[in-house]
Amino acid sequence: MRSLADVEVLTAETVEEALHLLGERAGSVRVLAGGTDLVVQMKHGVVEKTDLLNIYGLDELRYIRLDNAVVKIGALTDFSSIVKSPIIQRAAPVLAEACSTIGSTQILNKATIAGNIINASPAADSLPALYVLEANLRLRSRSSSRTVAVREFYKGYKKLDLRPDELLVEVFFDQLTNSHYGKFFKHGLRQGDAIAVVNGAVLIEWDETSGTVSDARVALGAVAPTVVRAEKTEEILKGGRLDKETVIRAAEAVQQSIKPIDDVRGSAAYRRELATNYVYMTLRSLAELVGR
Amino acid sequence: MTMTGSRVVREFSFKLNGQPVTVKAPPAYTLLETLRYVLRLTGTKDGCSSGDCGACTVLLDGRAVHSCLTLTAQVQGREVFTVEGADSRVINAFASEGAVQCGYCTPGLVMATEDLLRKNPKPSTDEIRESLRGNLCRCTGYVKIVKAVKAAAGV
């Protein structure tokens, strides 16, 4: 394991200063937020040692707000805060559920939502929830500000639509309504503090009057170079009832959206089985929730 | 600006166990390294250095974090509590319940327990197990550890 004693750390006192430093040093610094992934990666030589831009002290990027039915989460908000936030519990319970599984108390207290997004692990636990919420990311540089949908942000394995002078400053999405039902699932090798072998989130909008699904979003992690939406599954669910036959067909259809690999946590074949079975179990429990 | 590759030392000020301290250290020294090698506070242990085992747990602004994944530059102006500043009720409970065998994981467990009891003074068994899931013990066993947390909480 490598010592980081020779790594230079620039510390920004304000967001403006951080953006200025990023602009000046674009490409030659890495942004340090909570550090729970980046510090491990640098110690283990997974990423090269580079100068760091420490933004951990920027408390102005720590907030969870509900603004005209839009939930806004500051980039440095840690997962403990997200899990226990009454706003998230009410407006996006599927995100609270996903974030609670990310790691130990120590990790949840320190790791940030922006860190999980930028680290871009295909197994990141917050991502399937952010995909089904159709979250947007606000990216700022010294001279620009733009919004990109989380689904458009990932261009391949750890390839991001992010310029070196840009900082992710906020995550936002529409709040869910009473007719939305969502669930997150994760298969880890143990219950606490394990990386997902497969994870995912299912969100349906239920039309009480007709007893059918009016909208369905299904996102799966650790089964492709990026998190994927299971489009065929969504198509089967939309307009359908949550009867056993539909649920089986929808769960089997996830196979068309995934390209898992063999790795230390599981084989591609195991991941294929897990993906279908977990989507099946999750849809069955959502069916119970809506009384079907 | 000095670039990575040449060793730099800077001054950092923060509150440690209630007292203000100023320390000279490389900015990317982990808080664990600064505590043990600069401040000579060796209660905090280095287990895995990767945020998996919890032995290095300290409180940062009142919440449990891994000191092995926290850089010294990140605690500038903040408040750190280590096992040296821990609540004696928790330490005594671990001792009296026999929740210490080799003792290497104990400082981390004491700090994780402090984090839990600050948020939830009367935790259930499930809540205790849930909040200590990031602290690995390889010899005492978790039964006595859970008993110690209950004793500290008076439940």
Give a quick summary of the entry.
The complex is a heterodimer of chains A (292) and B (155). By secondary structure, chain A is an alpha+beta fold.
Q: What is the element layout, followed by pairings?
A:
The complex is a heterodimer of chains A (292) and B (155).
Chain A: E1 9-11, H1 15-24, E2 29-32, H2 38-43, E3 51-54, E4 64-67, E5 70-74, H3 79-84, H4 86-91, H5 93-100, H6 105-110, H7 113-119, H8 126-132, E6 136-140, E7 145-149, H9 150-153, E8 154-156, E9 159-160, E10 167-174, E11 180-188, E12 196-207, E13 212-221, E14 228-229, H10 231-237, H11 244-252, H12 268-289
Parallel strand pairs in A: 1-3, 2-3
Antiparallel strand pairs in A: 4-5, 5-10, 6-7, 6-10, 8-9, 11-12, 12-13, 13-14
Helix pairs in contact in A: 5-8, 10-11, 11-12
Chain B: E1 10-16, E2 19-25, H1 31-38, E3 57-60, E4 63-66, E5 79-81, H2 88-96, H3 106-119, H4 125-131, H5 142-153
Overall description:
- The complex is a heterodimer of chains A (292) and B (155).
- By secondary structure, chain A is an alpha+beta fold.
- Chain A has three domains: 9-54, Uridine Diphospho-n-acetylenolpyruvylglucosamine Reductase, domain 2 (2-Layer Sandwich); 60-174, Uridine Diphospho-n-acetylenolpyruvylglucosamine Reductase, domain 3 (2-Layer Sandwich), CATH 3.30.465; 180-289, Enolase-like, domain 1 (2-Layer Sandwich), CATH 3.30.390.50.
- Chain A is 34% helix and 26% strand.
- Chain A has helices at residues 15-24, 38-43, 79-84, 86-91, 93-100, 105-110, 113-119, 126-132, 150-153, 231-237, 244-252, 268-289, and strands spanning 9-11, 29-32, 51-54, 64-67, 70-74, 136-140, 145-149, 154-156, 159-160, 167-174, 180-188, 196-207, 212-221, 228-229.
- In chain A, strands 4-5-10-6-7 form a five-stranded antiparallel sheet. Chain A has a four-stranded antiparallel sheet with strand order 11-12-13-14, with helices on both faces.
- In chain A, strand 8 (154-156) and strand 9 (159-160) form a beta hairpin.
- In chain A, helix 5 runs antiparallel to helix 8 (126-132), helix 10 (231-237) packs antiparallel against helix 11 (244-252) and helix 11 packs antiparallel against helix 12.
- The longest helix of chain A is centred in the last third of the chain and has 22 residues, at 268-289.
- The mean pLDDT of chain A is 96.
- With 155 residues, chain B is an alpha+beta fold.
- Helices cover 32% and strands 16% of the residues of chain B.
- The model of chain B has no long low-confidence stretch (mean pLDDT 95).
- Chain B has helices at 31-38, 88-96, 106-119, 125-131, 142-153, and strands at residues 10-16, 19-25, 57-60, 63-66, 79-81.
- The longest helix of chain B has 14 residues, at 106-119.
